[in-house]
Amino acid sequence: MEPPRPQPATKPKSLTGVPPRLVITSRRARVLAFRADRWAAKKAAAQAALAVAEWDYPLLDEHDFLKTVHRLVDTAVAAGGKRVSVHLADQDDKILVMASTTRPVNRTRQEPCRRRWRYCGPSRRAAPHTDHDGHAWWALLDAGPQPKKHLA
Q1: Hey, CA dihedral for 17, 18, 24, 26, is it positive or negative?
Q2: Average pLDDT over residues 116-142
Q3: Where do runs of H (alpha helix) occur along 37-117?
């Protein structure tokens, strides 16, 4: 009989020691990257609109989509860092838009960033996400037919 083996204080995050990244599978997706400058939001909105136009969502409100992408990228640029990436994905008549930066948000920049992303158009859901290697802001937009409201 041998004594019990020592147990590690914490469990590894993955088998390779590298934490898992965002993975989008089984749906259309697009990733766009930009230098974090004052023109990034306008460029990102235009390129995201072209990418989503290929997915054929005729009921998507283009103005609100552009405004949402612009707001999310503007917030990511304000957070600091050299690059901003925009991730687009769709499923079930909804479009996910996420803007991320690889630089964690500085505490002095956190409140201005919160104020910037607060309104993201007609999205059902919008929120920030902080990770060990950066910060992201996302919004989920309805791109399909809206349910009819019944008058009582």
Answers
A1: negative
A2: 66
A3: 40-53, 62-78, 107-117
87 residue type, one letter: H
Q: How far apart are CA 142 and CA 2, in angstroms?
A: 61
Angle at 140 between CA 89 and CA 92, to 5 degrees: 60
Burial of 34 (0-12, 13-18, 19+ CB in 10 A): buried
CA pair distance 87, 72, nearest whole angstrom: 11
The least confident of 102-106, 107-111, 146-150 is: 107-111
Mean per-residue pLDDT of the chain: 77
What pTM was estimated for this model as a whole?
A: 0.70
The token pair at 18 is 């590298």
**In terms of residues, how long is the chain?**
152
One-letter identity of residue 114: R
Q: What is the pLDDT of residue 109?
A: 52
Measure the N-to-C terminal CA separation of the chain; round to a whole number of Å.
76
Residue 58 CB neighbour total at 10 angstroms: 8
26: left (phi over 0), alpha (psi -120 to 50) or beta: left
DSSP label at 14?
Answer: S
Stretch (H or E) spanning 141? strand 134-142
Q: In 3-state terms, what secondary structure has residue 75?
A: helix
